[in-house]
Amino acid sequence: MSSQPGQGLPFLPGSTFRDLTKTSFHRSQTLVYKNGFAFSRLPTVGIGGERLYVNQLSQSELDELSSMRPTLTYGQAKRAPPSDFIPAYVAFDKKILKFDAYFQEDVPLSAEEHYRIRQVAIYYYLEDDSMSVMEPVVQNSGLPQGKLIRRQRVPKNEHGDHYHWKDLNRGMNITMYGRTYRIVDCDPFTQVFLESQGIELNPPEKMIFDPYTELRRMPVRKYITPSDFDQLKQFLTYDKQVLRFYAMWDDTNSMFGENRPYIIHYYLADDTVEVREIHKPNDGRDPFPVLIKRQRLPKTFVDKKKTFPSCVLEISDQEVLEWYTAKDFAVGKSTTLLGRPFFIYDCDEFTRNFYRDKFGITDFQPVDVKKKPLEEVPQVIPPYNGFGFLEDSLQNCFSLLPKPPRKDVIKMLENDHKVLRYQVVLESPNPEDRKRRFILSYFLSNDMISIYEPPVRNSGIIGGKYLGKTRVPKPSSTTENATYYEPSDLTIGSTIEVFGHRFVITDADEYVLNYMESNAESFPAATLQSLRDHFRPTQVAKETAKSDSPIPGSSKQELDELIVQVQEELKLHNYLNNRNIQEEFLQHDKDGSGILDKGEFLALCDSLNVPTSDVLVNKLIGLCSCGENKISYRDFLRAFPS
């Protein structure tokens, strides 16, 4: 007896037993995908996971495979590799069969046609066996044409079958959604494809055309009205033909009047006239483009009483003897339209051709109506009167409300408190004036010059301010091209003319030389060399005096070592500006001797935030002392290299 329950029993109701070990009862998968393509395979496992031996190799087949040996002479026969599988959407991509067809449509409510023939094109898409029906659009047909059947698989019968390309041929009828189409022909690609598949094509048929459409294409008989005064004939002949004239209305006699351009349109269809305005950007006029609306304009009125209220009644044909026609407009002539004189100076090309063909006029020379530009009156700048600066006086010549000239703020900020001082003497035939000495200060922030005369006791001349801060023009300066004195013009021995007085530069501050050497690229070489030649003897004498009389109680080596230590100590005070410190000391040394009073020296150090409380700095100040309450600041400044 078998160990499994129910094995060997007949498969009858009531004689079956459930296998409790089985938990899966689904069918095996027979459709799989490999490399994007679907293919089927035979199942190896049945329902519930039982192994099937039907689709397996038999014992004889296995023995035959195990006993196979390679052929020694020629080897095994090589079989051709199977062809690659190509899906339909790749093989038939963008391959479409086209058939020419038509269908007949009844027209029950028309007396001119009883039926209508509508031509269509049937497209069959091979990639997915779908079809579409398109009707070419006919102009002015009044029918909804275009896509009659959208692309889809079209049912062939009631059993659910669809049309296949094997069902299509020439010279046959095909019914789709209750409408019967007659296929008459196909394109060359369709013919080649069907013949390659073994389908015998029927001979092509002629396309049937719609009889009513052919009737409309026949030439229509034209009736010509013999009357020359038929307004309908005039309308049909000259419809949409307009004469265009360019005119000017001279309204300069009235207040605020001017020459205003207009366009005159003459409509040949009904002899009406329209006058349109030409607006320009920002012309200040209301945006009304039409001055005279389109209407017939009277040229000559019937004689009538002066009391006739013509301003409140419309003009009728009984009141007008003559209306304006195309003969009344010509280039180069004036015409009066509703009381306004218009001068016609040009017309367009269509108007020229019309007058040339209709009236034989060939003279269409346009008239130049553009205003000639006014001659520019040269602006004469009056001579400088000496009041104020020249730039301020020029502003009064340019506008009624003069504006102050713009200042160079960057230059003012960079050169604030920077002054170049020179000693000058007055060049005069008077011997007393030649003895006078002046201090000329040049302010770099605004290029102004001031002159100060130090008072001399018992000289008989009151000293003080000789010239306030102002810009001094050169003798060659003009009102149109003003040039002023610059630092490059101030050299030792040069002569400058200040408002009629001539001064000769005899000396300069040592700060001038230091400033020009630090900005050598901004000054001529001759100016810098003149200052160097002037200061060279003084510098040599001072250096000699220093070398001959060393500071008492100290040696030069000790001073150099102390200066190096002070420099290392002052590196911690990064707020100090060494250049400003040197400039301030040089400016306080009026005579350039290199020696300052101790009180003035300490006050200057406090204003510059120099840490005089430091031990090394105090020691350096002690070494720089020369005499009672005197300090040689030049060695002290070596600790503040710029």
TrEMBL record:
Residue ranges of domain DM10 in the record: 93-198, 239-359, 416-520
Pfam family, one: DM10_dom
Keywords: Calcium, Cell projection, Cilium, Cytoplasm, Cytoskeleton, Flagellum, Metal-binding, Repeat
Keyword Calcium found: yes
Localization per record: Cytoplasm, Cytoskeleton, Flagellum axoneme
Principal location listed in the UniProt entry: cytoplasm
Entry superkingdom: Eukaryota
Domain EF-hand: 576-611
Stored InterPro entries: DM10_dom, EF-hand-dom_pair, EF_Hand_1_Ca_BS, EF_hand_dom, EFHC1/EFHC2/EFHB
Classification via PANTHER family: EF-HAND DOMAIN C-TERMINAL CONTAINING PROTEIN (PTHR12086), EF-HAND DOMAIN-CONTAINING PROTEIN 1 (PTHR12086:SF9)
Name of the protein in question: EF-hand domain-containing protein 1
Organism: Apteryx mantelli
